[in-house]
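As a warm-up, study this chain.
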Amino acid sequence: MLDALHAIESAFGRERPYVGAPRTLDLDLILYGGEVIAMPGLIVPHPRFRDRRFVLEPLAELVPEWIDPVTGKTIAELLRVVHGRGGSQGRA
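Now compare it with the structure written out below.
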């Protein structure tokens, strides 16, 4: 799955000259069912998705009761926490 996302990025001209380089396109693997994956180059669920309103809001519109396998909280609950503390709108 990650290779497929990287291939799409490359097809649209994304280059990875160094870690943290500016991005023209950034596709992330946020969740993969209820799986928890930790391996070099891949952590699922995405380690920062719980703090990003721009990720949680559309996810909550689609699947508000989906459970984060790490915290056990629903997407709706995670979004309420982010709204309560004024969570990130932009890229962090």
